[in-house]
Design a protein that fits this description.
By secondary structure, this protein is α/β, with parallel strands linked by helices. Helix content is 53%, strand content 11%.
Amino acid sequence: MNFPALYRKYDDELWSLAKKLRLKQLEFSRQGHIAAFGDVEGEIMYLAVRELRPDCVFEISPAAGYSTNYILAALTANDHGRLHAFDINGDIHGRPTDSVIRENLMKGLDASRLEVHIGDARETTPQVEGTVQFCLLDSCHEDWFAKWYIETILPRVNGLVMIQDICFCDRLEKSSEAKHVWQWLKEERVYFELVGAMEEELRACEDRPNLPDRRPQESNSLLLSVPLCHQDAMPELTTNPEDLLQLAEQSYRTGDVAIAEDHLLRAEELVWTRSRRVNRHRLYLKIADLYFLMDALDLSEKYYHHALGEVMCYEEMGRAKGLREMWRESKARHSWLRWFTSKRNRKPNARRFRLAWTVLANVLCDRWAHPNAWKPRPH
């Protein structure tokens, strides 16, 4: 598909959709729901469904229905097709999943085109017969699930498949699903497009209009055309910052301090240049820990504050999740309890102790201000 041309063709529709979803995304966060779907990914999906005019669309798994809004908006505009959403969780925060999804739909969408199926997708998808023209896969990120949908779902598709959380424009996600899918693409020489690479090209050529931000995170999906086509070579990926940080730690522990610093500086540069990438706070934490290991306390404190600052810029659900991680890091890695109980530990850990209390203050304030975001999530 010529997506730059489709952006121009459906410019007005995308503008109206983005304005509505901007408010809907904030509503999701206030209610304690996850809306983990990037703006460009949603737009590409809307354009694909709008242009394909599919009879049948599969979505595995919709969660509370944020991505469902994109698909159903396109089907409503088409005045054609049905969406089958499959989720293993029967309830969200104690309420039926079907009801939660339908209440989270934007006004004006044709909800009669949506059918929600509860249960294991391996058992519920065979109950819907026929060919699928578009499929969104954003579910279990383990290799066994990837093997299942490659063998079972893809043969049923005659159109497009979008698989989320696989690869950014330059590196793979850290999951067994991503590794399995990438290996399968490589062995079978399957042609695909990285949505992240498409996003970079759209921004560089200014083909994507300036739409209202909803969740401006960098895309990590890939798009497959089925029946599958072949390609001669896989795209080249860059080094993962996490791999560089691991090499830095190994080099430092073996006494190669200069090499460790080089790896660390390269990792820092990669993290800084990808400002819209999700979960950057985790990389900041790893950098802070390495500088603490190297006894560079000023740099360690700097990156620990960067991690906290990154977390506090997330929406409610992401902020609650990030603060939990920051608090665990404060307790497990920075010895704040030992600092409090033992005088001999106070001097070397004083900085980390102050930072731990800063994290605790943010945790308590956020739990009080946004209690829905701190509710346990179904697994």
